[in-house]
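request received
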Amino acid sequence: MTRISSVVFIFVIWAASAGAAVAIERFPPPDFTDHELPTTQVVPPRADAWQIADAWFLVTGLGLAGYFALVRRSRAGLLTLTVASLVWLGFFREGCVCPIGAIQNVARGLADPTYPVPYGVIAFFTLPLVAAIFFGRAFCAAVCPLGAVQELVVLRPVRVPRWLEHALGLIPYIYLGAGVALAATGTVFVICRYDPFVGFFRFGAPVGMLVFGGLVLVLGMFVGRPYCRYLCPYGAILGVLAKLARWRVRITPDECIQCRLCEDACPYGAIEPPTVAPRAATRPVARRRLVYALVALPVLVAAGGWLGRQLDVPLARLDFTVRLAQRIRAEEQGLIAPVTDPDAQVETEETRAVDAFRSSGRTDGDLYAEADMQVARLGTAGMLLGAWTGLVIGAKLVHLSIRRRRTDYTAEPSRCVACGRCYRYCPREQVRLGLLQEEGFATAAAPGDIQGDRRP
Amino acid sequence: MPDDSPNVNRRRFVGDGLRAVGAAGLLGAAGAWAGRRGQATDMRWQIDPDKCVACGQCATHCVLDKSAVVCKHAFVMCGYCDLCTGYFEPQPLALDSGAENQLCPTGAIVRRFVEDPYFEYTIDEQLCIGCGKCVKGCNAFGNGSLYLQVDHARCVNCNECAIARDCPSEAFCRVRADEPYLRKDRNLGQ
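response:
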């Protein structure tokens, strides 16, 4: 039993000096006469071929989504593709990597030359953007697994008031800026951290993540696609590019008869009514408003930049190195009791980090220098983020002050996710499909009948 | 009805040209960047065993119910001790496989007699939860042949790894998928 008591002694020493794993050969490995050493078994990860399969799925999916949405005008086709994407990219591939998260890998890769970015990630980031230039948000329509989940739970969508829609619609742009800023500085991948559905795809996640996802889904029953519309940063980029789209969702296959039937069809508030010609008296007011908005734009950018510059300290709290440096500095200055006896105090993540740092052999000076550099970097990132936020708000004000002329009910391309719901609501589509008779319908929808009383 | 007037046609032509240029630019930029800095293999998370302090957070911080981190054993480094500090509690009642003597909370380490006085320890990875208790014990008093690794059969490769985010020693790093393990005996010429 003497050996056992010596172990007790050793463990006392060990408890006082928990440290990094440094292999020391305290007991020379024996030379066995007739015993063969086992080999350490390791399982290789999924083959890289899956990356190629994913890219093919993405390309095919984008093509099919565009075809179903714009050529076949088939909601059934889009729904089938939606389910397929949900199964493949969602449940089978477990939600990683997606273009939404790839924003951060790309931002990080551009900011830090040593950060490796696989081809698959670059493809996932780029291809939906290229598709958006030609046929709008085809990716959102039926390829994105996050969109697919929400697409399938829409139960009884309410119409979000326009002012609220415009206000909440700013969040994705700001979130995009924040995601890029935090990823580029190597602080945190915030977009992935608050991914609502990845926990469902994997049948398991921290409780907070599942609750957030559940809330988004419940909300999604009554407000169509809340994540896509009010959070998704990739949707923000796609929305801007979709404004340039060559082929767009046209609600009616030929001509709009102003019947208003499609107006309630869109659960995502993407259908805009025809504009009313303004009275001559309001024109100078509108013009003045535009001038104000244009003047406000640079002011907002400057103010945002200044405010963002003040964000370096709060932003730095998100950074591991900075937090650790603060803790060490506080210990050195005697503000907090140093971690000397692991048994005497409750272990927290902070004390573990301090322990790990102490045993890593790095000097305090190195850590402080690295932390200071990171704070400086986050200061710049915060300033850019603030300026970006100012730009987003300013651009929105300008955008709202410009009057557009629309003669028909149209699906606003930046918000339309090409789900294809509105097609069947259009009587002209019904005629095209042979579900309605042309003549009988034509008399019922004579211009005077419908337009006269209802339009403002 | 589509408008076929020359003005509209011209505008459409210019628009198509710009779109083609935009698409080519996007793809070109992505391709050039991929060519210079991208790489064909995917990236995986892995633990650098030289940085790991076996704090135990791996067992609880993974998004999976059962953590993707498991203990690996570098057999060439092992001392095959009878009194293995990675296997036994600090004050074992006896040097046998009684549950009250074992450090491992799930009994995932199999102790097997080889020849006097040596015992071989193997990890039953199905039972291992990656808590690192044995790793800590082995590092403290043994040769440090036990170490934690991300098991790629379990890991779902989150873009933002929840363990990496909270790892106190920043031991988590991304490695190429064609060399996905950082074996502790990798420098021993095995």
